Amino acid sequence: MASLTVERESRYRFADGVEPMFEAARETWQEAAAAGEGMGSRVTRDTDGEPNGALYVFGEAGARDLLGEFRSGTTPLEPLVDRVNDDLADGEPRSVFVLRPAEGGYVVVYIAFRADGVLARTVRDTYF
User: Fold this and answer.
1) Is the pTM of this model over 0.90?
2) Which of 12, 14, 85, 98 is the most buried (most CB within 10 A)?
């Protein structure tokens, strides 16, 4: 029998057809698309200027269902979460939100640095 140890809890939530998509995600996608990039990222900040999340946007090319791939694990989210965990090394649980806007075209992966922080609660209250 194998044993495991939980190093850090991360909560994952998925939503399709999100409307309206929040401004930072729209802007990040517009900047990436204008630069001809298939993905973009930024660190978001709270009203005091403190970092509160890592935002990634990925273009969906052709008939690809990137939201479904993230949900099933075909395309793993762990490298993105691991990057945040390595950068912060604070032991805090994370909330990971994977959202596709109603108009499609891209998928957002938003990692809230604190699973029970204001950012995570706001995203949950808005989209779930």
Assistant:
1) yes
2) 98
Question: What pLDDT, on the 0 to 100 scale, is given for residue 20?
Answer: 93
* Residue with token string 């005091």: 48
Q: Report the alpha-carbon distance of residue 128 to residue 87 in Å, rounded.
A: 28
CB 60 within 8 A of CB 99: no
Q: In what order do the strands lie in the sheet with 39-45?
A: 10-18, 94-101, 106-112, 51-59, 39-45
Q: How far apart are CA 118 and CA 121, in angstroms?
A: 5
Q: Is 76 part of a structural domain of the chain? A: yes
Domain count along the chain:
1
> Which residues span the domain enclosing 101?
10-127
